[in-house]
Amino acid sequence: MKVSNAIYPLSLLIILVGVWCFFSNIYGVKTIFLPSPQHTLFSLWSMLQQVEFWQDLLSSWYRVFVGFLISFLIAYPISFASLLNNKLKDTIFYFIEFFRYLPVPVFIPIIILWFGIEDMSKIIIIVLGTFAQMIPMFYDSATAIEKKYSSFNFALKWSKLKYIENVIAKGSAPSILDNSRICLGWAWTYLIVAEIVGAEYGIGYAMIRAQRYLATDKIFAYIIVIGLIGILTDRSLVLMRKKLFPWNK
């Protein structure tokens, strides 16, 4: 990253920390409501030295990774299958629209009843929350490429399936990866909600456990951890995109 590109986010960070310091240290907001930055960082440092923290972190990451991967493996072929036939597309999208507008938390009680509070229930919640969002996004990315190169297909007289395989799938890959970055953020949101409602370990469970003991500093520390995970994951996907698709800026 160029120095000039880092100035704006760094400036924003300094302003936010400055406002935080003002309210916590100068204005006098009680620690139980707003811990100071230094208190939060001290708690974060203490957490990093605890085995339980790493167990919670790895458990949450595992659930997100598996749930997101399953969602992708469901959404990707369905999105391209929707290109084959309009009636098939309409059928798929009626089903998807039903799920898209259902708030995922309404599924949590029944999923916990069926699968308990183990990893499987958290993974299912992530799948329910992300796959129905992925399909329209992937489909839009694919149709954009289909329209762009429709004349190319007309000249070659390829079958629909061959056109999808050789042109649309490859041409839409960068855009689909961008869409996946957005959906991965949603996966973390649904996971934290699921872990708060019912879990024995995980970041969401750790946050609700800290709330019971009024350890607000730990809650803020976990918020920072989740944000840093998001930044690192997103930057990794951006780097992957540049390496895999250097021709698409």
Can you tell me about this structure?
There is one protein chain. The protein is 82% helix and 0% strand. The chain has 249 residues and is mainly alpha-helical. The chain has one domain: MetI-like (MetI-like fold), CATH 1.10.3720. Helix 3 crosses helix 10. It is globular and about 70 Å long. It starts with a helix and ends in a 5-residue tail after the last helix. The model has no long low-confidence stretch (mean pLDDT 84).
CATH topology: MetI-like fold
Average of per-residue pLDDT values: 84
Per DSSP, what share of the residues sits in E-state strands of 2 or more residues?
under 5%
- What is Rg? 22 Å
Which architecture name does CATH use? Orthogonal Bundle
**CATH superfamily grouping:** MetI-like
Helix content: over 70%
Basic shape: globular
Short characterization:
This protein has a single domain, classed as MetI-like (MetI-like fold).
Which secondary structure elements does this structure contain, and how are they paired or packed?
Blueprint: H1 3-26, H2 37-48, H3 51-81, H4 86-100, H5 108-115, H6 119-148, H7 150-156, H8 160-171, H9 173-197, H10 203-212, H11 216-244
Helix pairs in contact: 2-11, 3-6, 3-9, 3-10, 4-6, 5-6, 6-8, 6-9, 9-10, 9-11, 10-11
Top keywords for this entry?
249 residues; mainly alpha; MetI-like fold; transmembrane helix
